[in-house]
Design goal:
The chain is an alpha+beta fold. The protein has one domain: Orthogonal Bundle (Cytochrome p450), CATH 1.10.630. It is 49% helix and 7% strand. It contains 16 helices and 9 strands. It has helices at 2-24, 53-64, 83-92, 104-109, 125-138, 145-165, 177-193, 202-218, 235-263, 273-283, 289-300, 303-319, 321-335, 350-363, 393-398, 440-457, and strands spanning 67-72, 75-80, 173-174, 370-371, 376-378, 381-383, 388-391, 458-462, 482-486. The strands form 3 sheets. A 4-stranded mixed beta sheet has the order 1-2-7-4. Strands 3-9-8 form a 3-stranded antiparallel beta sheet. A two-stranded antiparallel ribbon has the order 5-6. Helix 6 (145-165) runs antiparallel to helix 7, helix 12 (303-319) packs across helix 13 (321-335) and helix 12 (303-319) crosses helix 16 (440-457). The protein is globular. The protein starts with a helix and ends in a 6-residue tail after the last strand. It is a peripheral membrane protein.
């Protein structure tokens, strides 16, 4: 009898607990489909057969649907593969997905704390403040004085850039990426720091190289990101990251920031972005020295994105000579061979701008994963705090559902019948929502004038085999060579 009573009590307790659980459980909660993980490695084995994880995500979406779960090592992840779901994550519920992956590599690149970075930090009031300081300088409006300043800096650097290009061997394979990156770096440094450096400055070129190495690094994935117990095997790699970052920081402090500290007039308007950061440091008790130094480093490092985008555009141009010809026709028509291109020529050169958009579409640069900062949902599916969310931009950019002949390089897809540049809503190469790339206008501006000027002055052909990694907007630091043949149309 005692045993029977105890069993009845246990059944009653279980029944009431189950009922309470059902009452607490949201009606919308439903299990997310996805592959069963293996012990220890999760589903990492499913990604190994593809050149980029996003190719695997696209294949898996055909099996499990537009949202599916996947375990990476021991990290619970969710992949979303259509535009409506991506908007839900980035816009409608952007506050719920404000975190970033806690990869050791990211910590190594930013002084031991990835929250020093704007792009790789978790969202916070501090990060919102840092973005607001940068917005005026990094998102210049077309009619603003800042846009005029961007144009002046860019066109002035073109003269130096072309002089440096003329020092390279002509009509034979040559490595032009270092020169392009140096021009981009000087454009950023002149605009943000009111300084620039000679291309034969050894320390400057070393820092430009390290920035490029880091840009490539951030665009890669490693097993240690999801299997941290592998860290001892990656010590050498991690030390290399710390070395690159340390050398960059030392250069910026010694060759840029110190001069601003010595000459800054706190009672006058800021001369540039560096001044604005130093003034804010003085005025805001919540802002620390590391916050402004790493923010400046973050934005100066944006030049690598431009240099790599230009190289990717050139990779397509040399594959499709008809594309190069149309750009040359536009630039010749606008400049009449009397000057270099400037930013106010963009409206008259829609095809050139479309080439850059098509380059970004084909590159399908992955959006940095987000992490749920609270328990939430996506389309009714429960998402636990700490879940990593991958946004499959690769599917958006290369799916036949969204694009006609998606595998072809067709810049005209971004032109209206009237010849104006148009971009569909689902095309989000710089992400969207509150964490959209704040420097995207600078990327568009400087890449436009560099690509235009190169093709204004040279016929360009491949000088080596060209390989571009799918789902990646970076090319390897030591990448393909190109052959420059002067067009003999240099402006007077």
């Amino acid at each position: 009898m005692i045993v029977f009573v105890v069993l009845c009590l246990i059944v009653l307790v279980l029944f009431f607990n189950l009922s309470a659980t059902k009452r607490r459980k949201p009606k919308s909660a439903k299990p997310i489909p996805g592959p069963d993980p293996w012990p220890i490695i999760g589903s990492l084995h499913l990604l190994g057969k593809y050149e980029t994880p996003f190719e695997a995500f696209t294949v898996l979406s055909k099996i499990y649907g537009d949202i599916f779960s996947i375990t990476m090592g021991s990290t619970p992840c969710v992949v979303v593969n259509n535009f409506n779901l991506i908007k839900e994550v980035l816009i409608a519920k952007g506050g719920d997905f404000g975190g970033r992956p806690d990869f050791m590599r990211f910590h190594k690149l930013f002084g031991g704390d990835r929250n020093n970075s704007l792009a790789l930090c978790d969202w916070s009031v501090l990060q919102k403040t840092r973005r607001s300081i940068a917005r005026t300088y990094c998102s210049p409006r077309f009619t603003s004085l800042q846009y005029d300043a961007v144009n002046l800096v860019g066109t002035n650097e073109l003269t130096v850039f072309m002089t440096e290009l003329q020092k390279l061997p002509l009509n034979e394979p040559t490595d032009i990426k270092p020169v392009i990156l140096a021009a981009c770096a000087n454009m950023f440094m002149q605009y943000m720091c009111s300084t620039s450096f000679p291309y034969d400055d050894t320390d400057f070129m070393k820092v430009v190289r390290y920035f490029d190495e880091i840009f490539w690094e951030i665009n890669q994935g490693y097993a240690v990101d999801f299997l941290p117990w592998l860290l001892p095997m990656y010590n050498k790699h991690m030390n290399k990251l710390s070395h690159w970052a340390g050398e960059i920081r030392e250069f910026i402090l010694a060759r840029i920031v110190q001069d601003h500290v010595n000459t800054l007039d706190y009672q006058s308007p800021p001369r540039d972005f560096t001044d604005a950061l130093l003034i804010h440091l003085q005025e805001d008790p919540n802002m620390e020295w590391n916050h402004i130094i790493f923010e400046l480093e973050d934005f100066i490092g944006g030049h690598s994105a431009i240099g790599n985008l230009v190289m990717m555009a050139l990779a397509s141009v040399v594959r499709y000579p008809e594309v190069a010809k149309r750009i040359q026709e536009e630039v010749d028509d606008v400049t009449r061979g009397q000057r270099y291109v400037n930013l106010f020529d963009k409206a008259a050169m829609p095809y050139t701008e479309a080439v850059l958009w098509e380059t970004l579409r084909k590159a399908s640069s992955p959006i940095v994963p987000h992490v749920a900062s609270t328990d939430t949902e996506i389309e009714g599916f429960p998402i636990k705090k700490g879940t990593m969310v991958f946004l499959n931009n690769y599917e958006l950019n290369l799916s036949a559902e969204h694009w006609d002949e998606p595998d072809k390089f067709k810049p005209e897809r971004f032109l209206s019948p009237a010849g104006n540049v148009v971009k569909p809503a689902h095309f989000i190469p710089f992400s969207t929502g509150k964490r959209t790339c704040i420097g995207q206008r600078l990327v568009q501006c400087f890449s436009f004038i560099l690509l235009s000027t190169l093709l204004q002055n040279y016929n360009i052909s491949p000088g080596s085999e060209i390989h571009i990694k799918p789902g990646c907007v970076a090319v390897t630091p030591d990448c393909f060579k190109l052959i420059l043949k002067p067009r003999n149309t240099e402006p007077n």
